[in-house]
Amino acid sequence: MKKLISILLIFSVSITIAVSQRYFSDSDTTKLIILGSGTPNPSPFQSGCSIAIVVFDTPYIIDFGPGLIRKAAAMSPTYGGKIKGMEVNKIKRAFLTHLHSDHTAGYPDLILTPWVMGRDEPLEVYGPEGIKKMTYNILKAYEDDIRYRLYSSEPANDKGWRVNSHEFIKEGIIYQDENVKVEAFPVPHGTWPNAWGFRFTTPDKIIVISGDTSPSEKIIEYAEDADILVHEVYSKKGFDSRTEIWKKYHSEHHTSTYELGEIAAKINPGLIVLYHILFWGSSEQDLIDEISAKYKGKVIAGRDLDVF
Ligand SMILES: [Zn+2]
Ligand SMILES: [Zn+2]
């Protein structure tokens, strides 16, 4: 009986996961996957901030919020998903908007788990000033684990745990290969000195990712012809219930639904996907209604594992 119950449980869990995935993509070439739509708040329904862009079968990760590797695995054929580029040992390139912990708490996972699963070349990471130091310190923190895996009876290669970190300091193209061109642009994020957004150009899509930002002219400049603008947002209704001190913080660091509506009306992108969403008790529909007060185009509140 116990066995039967556990089988039923496993069955119902896998059904729940399957139902919670939404598929919006119209492209065989480029897929945008929300690995984590969350913020520093540890919502069980929103993993930490992370996105994957998969071009053909090559993945590019943007931001390393906690939970990203589990969410990538959920999309991979190994775990019943359909996206080959989400096999975790294929994850070799990653881009970071800024070093805040909700965007980097998954960094050790990004370095180590794909290696343990067989990645046999170094991770290439592109991030703002400070990424080299963070990378060095993470590898230092895990040196005993790395040494043990390399020199115990565990089969492990000596390349996949390594990281080549590249710091970009200037606006413009920071990476290019046969699948993508990646441009970085600075965004305002309170007094945090080094926050960036990205524009990915693939063979068939232009995708702009806001990163963490208050309303930014740069977004308008870079997202003018975007097929998809992935933009952070907080609920205005939720914001109104916050204390004055938090209101000051959020208005300096982030973008409200009304502000995003105004930005969107100037750009008119093909689709806006909301991520890094601060709900504070509001619903997805509340957010969309607030944005719709200023903007009539298509807006979807991103959920973990959505494919665009
Ligand atoms: Zn953040
Ligand atoms: Zn931030």
- Main sheet record: 7 strands, mixed
Calculate the terminal CA-CA distance, rounded to whole Å: 42 Å
Helix content: 25-40%
Oligomer: single chain
Poorly predicted sequence stretches spanning 5 or more consecutive residues: 1-19
Beta-strand fraction estimate = 15-25%
**Bound compounds:** zinc ion
Structural class: alpha/beta
Mean pLDDT, nearest integer? 94
Care to describe what's here?
- This protein is of the alpha/beta class and 308 residues long.
- 33% of the residues lie in helices and 23% in strands.
- The protein contains eleven helices and 13 strands.
- It has helices at 2-20, 68-75, 101-104, 107-116, 131-141, 143-151, 217-222, 236-239, 244-253, 257-267, 284-292, and strands spanning 30-36, 50-55, 58-62, 93-95, 123-127, 163-167, 172-176, 181-186, 196-201, 206-209, 228-234, 271-278, 299-301.
- The strands form two sheets. A seven-stranded mixed β-sheet has the order 7-8-9-10-11-12-13. Strands 1-2-3-4-5-6 form a six-stranded mixed β-sheet.
- Strand 2 and strand 3 (58-62) form a beta hairpin.
- Helix 10 (257-267) crosses helix 11.
- The chain is globular.
- The N and C termini lie far apart (42 Å).
- Residues 39, 49, 100, 102-103, 212, 276 line the site of one zinc ion (ZN).
Provide a short characterization of the protein structure.
By secondary structure, the protein is α/β, with parallel strands linked by helices. The chain has eleven helices and 13 strands.
